[in-house]
Amino acid sequence: MNESRRAHGLPLLRVDATLQRAARAHSRDMIARGYFDHGAFGTRLSRFGIRGEVIGENLAAASGRRALARHIVRMWLGSPGHRANLLRPGFRRVGIGALPGRLPGLGNVRVVTADFAGT
Known about the structure:
Elements: H1 2-7, E1 14-15, H2 17-33, H3 41-47, E2 55-62, H4 69-77, H5 80-86, E3 91-103, E4 107-118
Parallel strand pairs: 1-3
Antiparallel strand pairs: 2-4, 3-4
Helix pairs in contact: 4-5
């Protein structure tokens, strides 16, 4: 993600431990309950005490080589909404939850949640 941000002249993201916990918890919940959706991510992040002027979230579920970080970032860059989050100038912090699991209709995948927040 930071390589893409650097290439666009944007501030780099720093890993935030609280965002990391929130992202991992969401990936774990999606696997445990068999769904793939953001849900009320603002409410979810606030339960973790996430503070920031702006927040955002990207999700991915992929298997094999497509589950590698570089492929997921490439996929996000190819999707207008995901790209907007990844390259949003106001985002400064990120937490990633990438866990293996099984999702209905997708089979065995890596479920990725990226939670973003501003300063």
